[in-house]
Amino acid sequence: MGLTFASLIMTQQPAIFLGLMARSYSFISDVGLPDIWVMDAKVQFIYDIKPLQETELYRVRGISGVQWAMPLYKGLLKARLSDGTFQTCNVIGLDDTTLIGGPAVMLQGKLEDLRRSDAVIVDIDGAQDKLGKPPALPGGKSSPLKIGDDLELNDRRAIVVGIAKVTRTFQSQPVVYTTYSRAKSYAPKERKLLSFVLVKAKPGQDPAELSRRIRDITGLAAYTREGFKALTYEYFMNNTGIPINFGITITLGFIVGTAIAGQTFYNFTLENLRQFGVLKAMGASNLTLLRMILLQAALVGSIGYGLGVGLAALFGYSMRYTILAFKLPWQLLIFSGTGVALICVIAALISILKVIRLEPAIVFKG
Amino acid sequence: MKPAVHCRNIVKTYDTDGQKVTALNGVDLDIATGELMMLVGPSGCGKTTLISIIAGILDQDEGRCELFGEDFLAMSNRDKLNFRAINIGFVFQAYNLLPSLNAIENVSVPLIINGMKRGAAERKANDVLEQVGLGERVQALPSQLSGGQQQRVAIARALVHSPRLIVCDEPTSALDHKSGHNIMNLLKEVALHHDRVLVIVTHDARIFSFADRIAEMDDGHIVRVTDAAAILK
Q1: Domain map of chain B by residue range?
Q2: Which residues of A touch B90 (CB under 8 A)?
Q3: I need a labelling partner for B207 at 20 to 30 A (CA). Which of A181, A240, A282, B191 fits?
């Protein structure tokens, strides 16, 4: 039970942690085409928008090795819903011509429909939940936003022309895609509105090398896709309490698991001390008894680990359509497996010490 | 010829809560091969300490105790373990069978400790269980056997690796009169050979008649060693 509990906690909690951390850079993962993201030199992570002047786009386009460079707007804007309430949305403005940076999976409508007047594409989770239309009658069910429905973004009309599937982001706000020029019209008036420049390297051009060149020439920050993900991940690791909170929970799981397993093993040893004494009297060496205890620990550990990992996987599966973040890569199974193995070794050691010190003469005591 | 068990001036003292308690105080004892020796005496007289020293599971503080010419104090731990595994069989008052193993597996344990493969060990264990009259119950767990049957399994376990010394601690005290006699008959018939020594610690006067000699102990000494026939007279 202790090992199952420890295994569950040491698998489930890191899986939620990894799910959350993956969400921190999920938008970068979703934008598949560009090799390099160019931004203001002070940007620390994907949500840290420090707009650039439009001229930066043309400077980047002029650098050798760049196949193409496209603008991307990303900002938080308030959408007014049909019942008059406001909902903050993550508005993404794509290059008007190429629509580069758009959602990879369209559930309804087509990406090209963004070229229609006042068109926006909304993510399915936002359409069904936070942007959903309020119930017609009090106490009724709200209905999801669908193609043809409209929103108001900064007093301007936006018509839904498509529903897309996007990976949930860290902010869990609805994602609204539109064109770059229309996004600028939705956004409050500012001198600079260009959030990122998306760059594709020419064939044969090393993206890392091109990033360095862009940085040197423009003075802007330029990261490969993986580099930008790492930057965002590092920011959340170093500047939020998330890793500490999850770390504490995982450590507690380890400690409680060790305590329960250690106590159970020790009780088992005490209950069977006479049997160990009999084996010692009959000539069984400490090494043989140690191997017996370790084998038992390995068997119990395997069962506990299997149950714990199974429960964690079941938990993740049952939560797959909810807002909960959950990511269970194979490396995590090794992590929790190592943790459980460590608990087994610690628990077994306590018993082994007792057995090694045991005098076989105990067998003749009443 | 040197006796199988040869103990001279054995002294053993325990430290209990800071107080020294002398369990054996200058014990001399010789036991010949082919002999069934009983150690008798009141509780706390040192019987259990003496058989523990004879069987090499406890070290004496002073004196010399040789078993088949070997002195345990002169052996390394590993040699002592190997010597015990090969030469000594144990029968306990509370049987001390491993509860999760069935009869045949329990009897196989000494052979497996001696390095025999499991299959061969179980075949030999089966033969010995048949010898002690439990050929039909080889698959039974200890909890499924009566007290007498469990003691038979324990005897089979003590015999299976053909040891030269069998040490029995109160082998009949948990059994009724008839079962006790059956167990003693079995020990005498199956366990006692001309080249083997049987040492039994007991309070049970009903089984004194099975002994060749009886050593009476009191207060850490052997006060008398007599032929059983003489005592019974």
Answers
A1: 5-232
A2: 278, 281-282, 363
A3: A282
3-state secondary structure of A44: coil
* Segment B9-38 mean pLDDT: 91
Distance CA A15, CA A21 (A): 10
List chain A domain ranges: 2-20+241-364, 53-219
B57 and A285: CB-CB below 8 Å?
no
Q: What is the pLDDT of residues A76-104, one digit of tens each?
A: 999 988 778 888 999 999 999 999 999 98
Closest-CA distance, A303 to chain B, in angstroms, reads: 19
One DSSP character per residue, chain B reads ---SEEEEEEEEEEEETTEEEEEEEEEEEEE-TT-EEEEE-STTSSHHHHHHHHTTSS--SEEEEEETTEEGGGS-HHHHHHHHHHHEEEE-TT----TTS-HHHHHHHHHHHTT--HHHHHHHHHHHHHHTT-TT-TT--GGGS-HHHHHHHHHHHHHTT--SEEEEESTTTTS-HHHHHHHHHHIIIII--TT-EEEEE---GGGGGG-SEEEEEETTEEEEEEEHHHHH-
CA of A344, closest CA in chain B: separation in Å? 22
> Residues 267 to 296 of A: which have CB under 8 A from any B CB?
274-275, 278-285, 288
Tell me, which fold does domain B5-232 have in CATH? Rossmann fold (3.40.50)
What's the confidence (pLDDT) of residue B165?
Answer: 94
Summary mean pLDDT of chain B: 90
Each residue of B79-107: pLDDT tens digit?
Answer: 999 999 999 999 888 888 999 999 999 99
Say what the pLDDT of residue B232 is. 63
**Taking the CA of residue B74 as centre, how many other CA atoms within 13 Å lie in the half-sphere pointing to its CB?**
8
Give kind and range of the element (H or E) at residue A156.
Answer: strand A156-165
CA torsion sign for B30, B184, B212, B162 is negative
Q: State the smallest CA–CA distance between residue B111 and chain A in angstroms.
A: 10
Test B113 with A278 for CB contact under 8 angstroms: no
Residue of A nearest to B160 (CA): A282
Contact assignment for B110 to A359 by CB distance below 8 Å: no
β-pair type (B5-16, B62-67): antiparallel
pLDDT in tens, B177-215: 888 888 888 888 877 778 889 999 998 888 888 899 999
* Mean pLDDT, rounded, for A340-359: 86
Predicted confidence at residue B233, as pLDDT, reads 64
Helix (H, G, I), strand (E, B) or coil at B214: strand
d(CA A73, CA A155): 19
Is some CB atom of chain A closer than 8 A to the CB atom of B81? yes
Provide, as residue numbers in chain B, all residues whose Cβ is less than 8 Å from the Cβ of A359: 57-58
With pLDDT > 90 as the criterion, what percentage of chain A qualifies?
Answer: 43
What is the pLDDT of chain A when averaged over all its residues? 89
Mutate one of B92, B159, B166 to test the A interface: name it (highest A CB count within 10 A). B92
pLDDT digits (tens, 9 = 90+) for A98-118: 999 999 899 999 999 999 999
pLDDT in tens, B123-160: 999 999 998 888 899 999 999 999 889 988 999 999 99
CA of A267 to nearest chain B CA: how many angstroms apart?
16
A263 close contact with B: CB closer than 8 A: no
In this structure, what token pair is assigned to residue A123?
Answer: 């993510």
